[in-house]
Amino acid sequence: MALLAVLANLCMSLLPVMANAPTDIRMDEKARTIHRIDSINILVYTVLLILTVCLIWAFKRRRARFLHETGLAVIFGLMVGASIRYASEETETSHLRVVPLNNQTLPDPGSPPDNVFVQLEIQKTPDGSRENRSYAYTFRGELTDVESKKLDQKATFDPEIFFNIILPPIIFNAGYSLKRKFFFRNLGTIMTYAFFGTTISCFVTGSVLYIFVLALPHLQFTFNNCLYFGAIISATDPVTVLAIFHDLQVDVNLYALVFGESILNDAVAIGLVSAITSYEDVSNKATEFELAAALKAFSNFFYIFACSFLIGSSTGCVTALITKFTKLCDFPLLESCLFLLMSYSSFLVAEALELTGIVAVLFCGICQAHYTYNNLSVESRQRTKQLFELMNFVAENFIFSYIGVSMFTYKKHHWDLFFIVAAFISIAAGRAMLVYPLTFLLNLGRTNKIPMAFQHVIFFSGLRGAMAFALAIRNTLGLQRHVMLTTTSFTVIVSVIVCGGSISTLLRWLNIPVGSEDHDQELLNITQQQRAQSELRSPTGEPLKTPYEKAWLVRKWYNFDVRFMKPFLTHSRPTLIETLPSCCMPLAHLLTSTEQLTQDDNCRHTREDDSDTDLCLDESDFNFERTNSLTQASQALVNHVYYIEK
Amino acid sequence: MALLAVLANLCMSLLPVMANAPTDIRMDEKARTIHRIDSINILVYTVLLILTVCLIWAFKRRRARFLHETGLAVIFGLMVGASIRYASEETETSHLRVVPLNNQTLPDPGSPPDNVFVQLEIQKTPDGSRENRSYAYTFRGELTDVESKKLDQKATFDPEIFFNIILPPIIFNAGYSLKRKFFFRNLGTIMTYAFFGTTISCFVTGSVLYIFVLALPHLQFTFNNCLYFGAIISATDPVTVLAIFHDLQVDVNLYALVFGESILNDAVAIGLVSAITSYEDVSNKATEFELAAALKAFSNFFYIFACSFLIGSSTGCVTALITKFTKLCDFPLLESCLFLLMSYSSFLVAEALELTGIVAVLFCGICQAHYTYNNLSVESRQRTKQLFELMNFVAENFIFSYIGVSMFTYKKHHWDLFFIVAAFISIAAGRAMLVYPLTFLLNLGRTNKIPMAFQHVIFFSGLRGAMAFALAIRNTLGLQRHVMLTTTSFTVIVSVIVCGGSISTLLRWLNIPVGSEDHDQELLNITQQQRAQSELRSPTGEPLKTPYEKAWLVRKWYNFDVRFMKPFLTHSRPTLIETLPSCCMPLAHLLTSTEQLTQDDNCRHTREDDSDTDLCLDESDFNFERTNSLTQASQALVNHVYYIEK
């Protein structure tokens, strides 16, 4: 660490001072200095990540589980942040106080202008003469503390970079690598946790916190502020806990519950944050509750969520269609590239339309995995999987390092010990209200109940991570949000290191079996069981009850998916020609690829091999008769050729 | 395209105007607007890339060769740029003219301050009252034309992004995927072209141009400016022409010459640009030639080039050592990640030390391919290859689209038709002086001469591309550089579309055989020939002459590489135990991995299978006796264990 600080120091102090150069070259110098500072900033994080990678390797090799990789990244980040802060000298930026030119009114009296133009008398050093030059300055932010501007250039990033560059691959990868089998099996429970649970958590955390902050009048926290904090802190992080679960091979249902909840609640938390902001807008920071505004905020939340969902999933479907109906798979590079760009564009479209890109990119990832993946060439499948895995790893570790570094280098921190303690209590209360009452209600309807031990684990594994931090740092206007940022950063660090580190102990303490069975092996067993059971039909033709009962909605959707969505979007069988009513035949032929018809049932696109098996819903749900499909298919192929030629 | 413009328009016009919100929320709004504009900008390019990918696929499918993918990207870019410019309404940014507060002196009288702080009276709308708030504004640039500031926010990127994000993967990939066999065989010729050729091209282009611009006094071009232009335009682009060569399967030596030259001359051009800038600094824009300054500039050039080379290659070697001596290959994800981060850090370290990162990353790529690649796990090899291929593809097409778009949206263009014509003539003259006289001299020393037809192709394939544009846009201070940027952009577009499009016609016209033999097949033949020849030693023990004679330096280096560098940095045989003198045995044992000793000669790390065969220098050069290596190795293993235990 000290080495790094020395390096940073050395680089910083190398700043050449060109005393006798004319202004143009000075300007070059300025641009060059900015470039150097940028490079050093990125370098610090790159070196940090390299060290983290090496250390992760060392930990993995020794099978040390008391500290997870994200914990390592945070701790490294803290060390580097401290050394940057205390060891390196401060590079001061120069500033000048200016006032508007006489008799000029603001372009918009309610907000500062985007740019200011200032005319300065610059000394041309060679001959000592002076000349007037005009410079443009861009809006940066409101000034609360002139002195603290000094450290700003060091190791701080534009929050925009988080949202536009770092977060999308993490969230997309979560969707793309979702273990859909157990996810869909527990869909109802997961949705309940994510939607109702996160809302409950947000309101409980906010309310409990509000009671505490009434004792802290100097912070001027309104109830809205507390709710805002409740929303950002309700976004739990899938990264740390899931990596631990994966290493330990815990029960697959527990895994699915924690994973599903932590993925979806990011999306819900973002929705809540924007709903609360829009409520604030409408109610003009009023502290009293306004029904109309609240309703508007909630309708806004559903509107944003639904639209983002639509954009994400339709982008996924469009990609599936492109890869299905073009022979793009002959060029895996182009194919992977298109896949990457389409996925990213779902994020951008949603952001550009002022929806939430994170929600869009999550559902885009799920659709891509569910449909497009089946159309990709073997090389592209591997390439996309590996690419997103790598991007996810780098982005994740970068965020956690950054959280660590920014604890020291970010200037907008505002520590308030009482507030932090209050926040911890409120967060625990919110999490408890999410887990225990909801699970009690859910258990009333579930055939396989969620045992109390699992509930404790779910409670405990609500770590806070990247998303909470990103939401907190996105908006740092005013004292309240500085306090929130500090508290969120601190909560993230504590939860990742302390909770993340002790979760394996907890699992042992609660006697939850770990490492007993291989995940994939277990899946295989279950699939075989199910298949065996689906053969055992009762004499009336009714299938026997399977161990996992699915909700009516899930069953309906599955049926619709296999009969219409999959045949439409992928090369899978049965084709639309077989599933659509006969009146739609021309359309069905148009939407069926020749590949779909020419493959025989042993080919890679049958249901056993494609991503659909991940869904792991038993065969008995699927009412379509498959026995004669081969003969039907050859007949269909003849028809198809006939239709196409026509 | 119209659709895109409508989309952009729609998004832009959706800007909500919050009339009655307090200032804090206005500020939120401002941040949100900036975020939206960012998203739309990136979205425009993403959509552009998606369209380009689809069109490339269509072209590849029809085997259309008259227009290359980069040409497509440029044309698409031009169309989108035009529609953004003419179809979408201008979003005006608000600005305010300000003056320094009374009695305040500039922090530095010779240059503008980094930030200005302005106090404004902002109206709090709900009650109509006003309050004073301070805002910070960051330096953006010199103002030459207030009116034109309007379009600035549209579809323009920070040039920093080019240099820090887009260029490194392209250059790294060039080094990493370098076909080293033919590259090393023609090393002398390539180096001559790159170092002397580029310098000649720069000076000839600059001088010819200077004669022309004497007729254009209003542009105020000095000789230095002309040289600067000569340097940036001397960076030829490997992308387009090589893709065409690869598709057409031209002669491997021609391929190697064009590839090697265009890769290395980027590095040389960057060096020349910074040398010319430093000459300018020293000579204070004097038009007369100053020997001391020129010498200083040239020593500076060599210093920068050598240091960048050192940083790049030592980063590569460090990565090789890490991958050799740790068992990181058990975790391919960590391994690939480390590989990626180390490679990027070579760029950043060089940039942070004010050297040229591009040179560093190029040689880092070559070292990574030559050493580290051999230590990687099979999965990581594939993953890194595919990753860089993808990044390269996206980055490349992005740059070419951007060149197209920026022709319309970038505000600093300054068209001067006469200058453009003059530049074209000078560039052709410079290129001709690079190719023909140098090749004549080189042919004196070469056994296999470069035929005249090849020389014409080399002359013609000096397309200008990403690097020239990046160098031009990096610095746009003053009228001269605006003219240079415009001319460079135009040259790039013309050369990519016209020259890139007609190169296959030229090859046919010059009767250069294309597609006759498969590259890899040819390599195999040559390798087999060489192996056969190396067996045929003359009675004196002297090897027979091989068809490709190598320079003395190359032979020496190769010998050193195989005896010391490869055993030290990779798992390859012979080990250092066998090659180092006996006095260094403890060191040799320390630096030899057990894997190196335990593998037998048929293992994957033998010279036939690793990347070393790419070097394709025949066996006869290698004076190390290999006959008894197996028995030696087992003896060495025993010693090794002994040393390690000690």
Automatic annotation (TrEMBL), chains A, B:
Per UniProt, residues of the Cation/H+ exchanger transmembrane domain are 50-509
GO-annotated molecular function: potassium:proton antiporter activity; sodium:proton antiporter activity
PANTHER family per the record?
A: SODIUM/HYDROGEN EXCHANGER, SODIUM_HYDROGEN EXCHANGER
- GO cellular component, as recorded: plasma membrane; recycling endosome membrane
Q: Which family does it belong to?
A: Belongs to the monovalent cation:proton antiporter 1 (CPA1) transporter (TC 2.A.36) family.
Kindly indicate where the leader peptide sits in this chain.
1-19
Decide whether keyword Transmembrane helix is in the record.
Answer: yes
What is the gene called? LOC100903689
- Give the main localization category: membrane
* Protein name as it appears in the record: Sodium/hydrogen exchanger
Organism for this UniProt entry: Galendromus occidentalis (western predatory mite)
Q: Which residues cross the membrane?
A: 43-59, 71-88, 161-178, 190-215, 227-245, 301-323, 344-371, 391-410, 417-441, 453-473, 485-510
Entry's localization field: Cell membrane; Recycling endosome membrane
